[in-house]
């Protein structure tokens, strides 16, 4: 395994850990202190920004929006659908919109992120 493949596996591990963490946070009945609903949307934006980052570097030879971005949006929709069946959660289009904002924000920042010399190696 060369260095490039090793780095790809590090990013894939980060992606899997992030997906497990975010899914568990989205489906738990435990409440966490939040300051209003705006903070919840910021959490969605940040979570999907991180997911987009890991997804982009986990599969470096795939186009972002067609393969990666749409997969992440599908994951966000799946989480919302699962939440609609939980008595302590609910489906929210605003959460899904915040997920899309996080992905779009990553797209806007990705040229700068990709130029970072440590990430290119």
Number of domains: 1
Question: What value does the average pLDDT take?
Answer: 88
What does the largest sheet look like?
none
What is the N-to-C order of secondary-structure elements (H for helix, E for strand)? Answer: HHHHH
Oligomer: single chain
The value of Rg in angstroms is 15 Å
Helix count equals 5
Low-confidence stretches: none
Shape: globular
Ends apart, CA distance between termini: 14 Å
Structural class: mainly alpha
Please state roughly what percent of the residues sit in beta strands, choosing from under 5%, 5-15%, 15-25%, 25-35%, 35-45% or over 45%.
Answer: under 5%
Helix content: over 70%
**Strand tally, please?**
0
Protein described:
By secondary structure, the chain is mainly α. It has one domain. Helices cover 79% and strands 0% of the residues. The radius of gyration is 15 Å and the shape is globular. It starts with a helix and ends with a helix. The mean pLDDT is 88.
List the keywords.
121 residues, mainly alpha
Write the layout of secondary structure elements.
Layout: H1 3-27, H2 36-58, H3 64-84, H4 93-115, H5 117-120
Task: Summarize, please.
With 121 residues, the chain is mostly helical. It is built from 5 helices and no strands. The chain has one domain.
